[in-house]
Design goal:
Helix 1 packs across helix 4 (92-118) and helix 2 crosses helix 4. By secondary structure, this protein is mostly helical. The longest helix is centred in the first third of the chain and has 38 residues, at 12-49. The chain has a single domain (14-219), classed as MetI-like (MetI-like fold). The protein has helices at residues 12-49, 53-67, 71-86, 92-118, 121-129, 134-164, 176-186, 190-222. The chain crosses the membrane at residues 23-47, 68-86, 92-109, 153-174, 194-212.
Length: 223
């Protein structure tokens, strides 16, 4: 088999016309899903730690259910079923954003729960001794320490989230991988396009992982 690779067709016009549009959506989806997932995940974590059965049971079912289903299946189900239920399409991009927030919240919930439980109980008792309510204690004492403890894990999950954004390819959303695919088809070089996409994903994720590792080391020194 004679495999002849030619990357000479890559130039700034190609990147700006095809790749950057997809990269922008991938980064936007990662940012929005991270923020939404952390907020929703924190609510789920607090529900599971509340000790109240009527809050613990639905939160546990949601988290365990989402973590047991492949993300690509959730993406497809939401994209295909929701329009059938509401009677109109919602678009691949909107569907991807909602799906990622709902899915990632389950994973961020477990991270948040572990972070909250990592705060020494003495800190909680100290807040209670000062007359703080449960909400004040969580907001002023527990959550700030928990966020610092779990920041490296949160960022690592965000990197995984960025990698998973390539799955929106299944519903036709224009992400970074889709941008490379379109460029490859237009210039008759699909193999080179996919290889370039793989290299870019690797470089970005490796660089981010290295920065998270450095951050983890600094946090360890502070402790």
């Amino acid at each position: 088999m004679n495999l002849s690779l030619d990357f000479s067709f890559y130039n700034w016009d190609l990147i700006s016309n095809f790749v950057l549009k997809g990269l922008y959506f991938s980064l936007m989806l990662t940012l929005v899903a991270t923020i939404g997932g952390v907020i929703f995940g924190t609510v789920l974590a607090l529900m599971r730690l509340s000790g109240k059965k009527w809050l613990v049971v639905p939160a546990t079912i949601y988290v365990n259910g989402m973590r047991s289903i492949p993300l690509v299946m959730v993406i497809l189900w939401f994209f295909l079923l929701v329009p059938a239920i509401i009677g109109r399409p919602i678009g691949a991009e909107v569907s991807a954003v909602i799906t990622f927030i709902a899915f990632e919240a389950a994973y961020f919930s477990e991270i948040m729960r572990a972070g909250i439980q990592s705060v020494p109980r003495g800190q909680v008792y100290a807040g209670q001794a000062l007359g703080m309510t449960y909400g004040q204690n969580m907001k002023l004492v527990v959550l700030p320490q928990a966020f610092r403890n779990m920041l490296p894990v949160l960022l690592t999950q965000t990197i995984i989230l960025f990698q998973d954004t390539s799955l929106v390819y299944a519903i036709g959303a224009y992400d970074m991988l889709k941008g490379f695919e379109v460029a490859g088809k237009n210039f008759g070089r699909p193999i080179e396009a996919y290889l370039a996409a793989a290299v870019l994903y690797f470089v970005m994720c490796y660089a981010l992982s290295w920065m998270v590792k450095r951050l983890h080391q600094k946090i360890a020194i502070i402790r």
